[in-house]
Amino acid sequence: MDIKVPELKGVMGKATISAIYVNEGDTVVRDQTLFDVDFDKVVLEVVAASAGVVHSFSAKQGDLAISDQVVMQLREIAVAEQTTSEQ
């Protein structure tokens, strides 16, 4: 699953990846914050749409990014698989 920089209506230009909360190989749960994107005066939290494992991250803190740019790949895992691995 591609994780992209969100589009912010009415805001033009580039954004900055202002914080990263996960690393490659980390297991994440749905709605977990992955990274923050700073658009001039607005900071948006980008969260996981589903449970998964961070497969790759093509940006680092401080990098410039544009809306709809893919910055992370998340390998989705089934909830049952996640529950089994936690036991």
From TrEMBL:
Pfam families: Biotin_lipoyl. Residues 2-74 form the Lipoyl-binding domain. It comes from the Bacteria. InterPro entries: Biotin_lipoyl, Single_hybrid_motif. This is Lipoyl-binding domain-containing protein. It comes from Pseudoalteromonas prydzensis.
